[in-house]
Amino acid sequence: MKHTIVGAAVVFAAVSGFAQDARWIWYPGDYGIWWGNELQSQRLQWGSRLTPFWPMYEPHTRVLFRKDNLDIREDEELEVRCDGYAAVCYWTDKFDYVESSAIGGKFTLPKGSRGIEIKIQNTARPPSVWVKGRTLVSDGTWNVGWTTTWDKAEDVPVDSSTRFTDPATPPGLAKLPTKEKLPVATIPLDGPSDGFTLAADFGEETYGYLKLRDVKGAGQLKVIYAESEAELKAFDLTHTKPGALDGWELLDLSETAEFRRAIAHGFRYVSVKRVSGDVTVGSMAMDYEWKDVPVRGSFRCSDPEINRIWDVSVHTLELTCREVFIEGVKRDHWVWSGDAVQSFLMNYYVFGDYDGCRDTLWTLRGKDPVKVHLNRIMDYTFYWFDAVEKYRLYSGDANIAKQVYPRMKSLMDFVIGRLDAEGRPVNRPGDWMFIDWASKPLPNEGGVTSFEQMLLVRALEATTAIATEVGATDEAAAYRTRAKKLRDEIVPRYWNAEKGGLMHMIYNDGRTDPMITRYPNMFGLFYGYFDKAQQESVVKNVIFNNEVLKIQTPYMRFYELEALCALGRQADVTKEIKSYWGDMLRLGATSFWELYNPTEKGEAHYAMYGRRFGKSLCHAWGASPAYLLGKYYLGVKPTSPGFATYEVKPNLGGLDWIEGDVPTPWGKIHVFADKDGHRVSEIR
Asked: What sign does the CA torsion over 635, 638, 639, 643 have?
């Protein structure tokens, strides 16, 4: 028999010390969804907020936490902190056992107790709890279920994080740390002689809360957040013309010692210009915000330029790592799957922030029912499945398979429901087949692209692995069969013997498009879908063929260079990194861009989407050297979940020496290599 102990709403009191650590726990995915909603609603464009154009989901408001199979051998005092309205229940093997109500978040769990439940509701943020006793603490061993009736509706492992152990601060009230930064220079601006302008350069791409000091008078100011000096100086008070500035807002101010913007933005330069009234500003500052996870990875080598590229890659990644991974700090501020899955890979070699990866996976997936592809993009859905399996491998998270598989299955059901009669991916109404920002349109209508078919195969293989782990053997077998059929037909169906690579597309009526693109060919290389002769042909006739459509984005350059690394051609990759990313540094970049075209000049480098300053100059997918240098130069990768086993195969890539650390769930792996050999050590 269960008995209820009366609980209170939002109890956050200081607690005494115990020998064990306790964490806040919550329903899996709910904080990922909630943080994603909070961040994505902060996008600033054309003076207003712009939220995503895909479905957004809400966390559960009422859940039931449960811990079974307790062995309480003597009375145990518990501290319970509940972010929401809660009741605590427990049970023993005595059906007539009754306990008095808890007082001030403390109560005694009696000897012989076999289990405990905490029922909690919160409509403002995800319900979460913190429990600490002598032997019982809230951690990843608890289960939770979503409920509408307080009956146990399901039983899945909770989410938790070592970031949230303070009983006084539940995850929804925790804030990322900040520190003040001052501008490194003021910028002269042209403007009306009777107006007021003030502009500053903060020295590098940054992210945080703008502060305006010594505000005098009253009136309206236009604030422009810029990533380049050219954007800063391109004043346009109306912003009604095509190609107008993106990142600006209007502020109504009156005399104050300091005004601090409540919402964070990304920028390097900021200007304020009076629109009305007599308002003036004495000076500017900002509170820089970052996620409180340390940089645990490192890389140094004999080439100073490569070292600088690694540093700027880390800075770029740090800026786009919030509670979840956003795409760019100034423009989108959204969570896109294509960017996020690359951020995960970089993160595994820089921060080892597995919680951030897990939470972002949930942000992207959302909840059932599935109505559209993730971000409305077919390929972005396929990437997500692969990212789940890689997260399991790098993190060693034993709970994720059971937590995520139901939503993995429902998403795959959605995918399968949109395939053609042969089980191939086609562009249905409402789908966006992105692939890449290419210099000319990529055909994708009226047929099947080899690239999308290849991504679907990998998605099915990943789903097979997770289904197998949770014991869904029949479903795993069905996914495996479907994956093998599609994989076995890729080369026979799309291979062009004359051109030595995979064709981009075959139309529904059987016509072939003779266009060869790099995308399916380079993915086939690092997925291992080619035999040796096909590998050699693709490298020669596609990857190193200047007649094949070149890649301009760091997004797909990431995968092109990974394909070469997978074949052991790091010396070629070193040249490409120094050329492509080195060129951005030579143009003054302090973070890496959404797109770089070496043929462009001057202000053209900042234009995109038909807008004069539409390009993001701090973009998550720009930081890929941090991943390539860790995985393929230091040569470290896990071979079983959580680096329980791993391999180290360094490759100098033409450098004289390399050295660095790769983070793991249990510590770091240190590697040094030069022309005489290499040394590996573990730091635990």
From this structure: positive
